[in-house]
Design a protein that fits this description.
Keywords: Membrane, Transmembrane, Transmembrane helix
Protein name: YeeE/YedE family protein
Strand content: under 5%
Number of domains: 1
Distance between the termini: 31 Å
Largest sheet: none
Pfam families: DUF6691
Structural class: mainly alpha
Mean pLDDT: 84
InterPro entries: DUF6691
Organism: Halomonas stenophila
Number of strands: 0
Length: about 140
């Protein structure tokens, strides 16, 4: 049941990205173009996500366990290491260059383009690189 719920959550996330226009890399690049033709649309999408998460997280934490799992799976590490900072920097650079982050990239696979292929290939290469680097945790 938890796998089905994860699948449904992923579909809802992808649908939300598509409806909000965040699968369009031009819109994301327009948001990042602060001194050109700036497009503030992404602020409203991000703001809606923050507000929804703020209240949803508090409601969920009042429960003894999730609806379809035995326990909550929350991260326990709170330190910042080179892998985290490096990964965040690479994520930001890739997002800024391509206009795609992983969610919109996967939601856009139906309309595959060469920039999308390049971004997905770089993301997969990053996964393998992250596995090859020694973990400090």
């Amino acid at each position: 049941m938890s796998t089905l719920m994860a699948y449904i959550a992923g579909l809802l996330f992808g649908l939300g990205l598509a409806v909000s226009g965040m699968t369009d890399p031009a819109r994301v690049l327009g948001f990042l173009d602060l001194f050109g033709a700036w497009d503030p649309t992404l602020i409203f999408v991000l703001g809606g996500a923050v507000v929804t998460n703020f209240f949803g997280y508090r409601l969920a934490r009042r429960r003894p366990h999730p609806l379809f799992a035995a326990a909550f799976q929350l991260p326990t590490r709170r330190d910042l290491d080179g892998r985290l900072i490096g990964g965040a920097a690479l994520f930001g650079i890739g997002w800024g260059l391509s206009g795609y982050c992983p969610g919109p990239a996967f939601a856009s696979v139906a309309g595959i383009t060469w920039p999308l292929v390049a971004m997905l290939a770089a993301m997969v290469a990053g996964w393998f690189l992250a596995r090859a680097l020694p973990s400090q945790g």
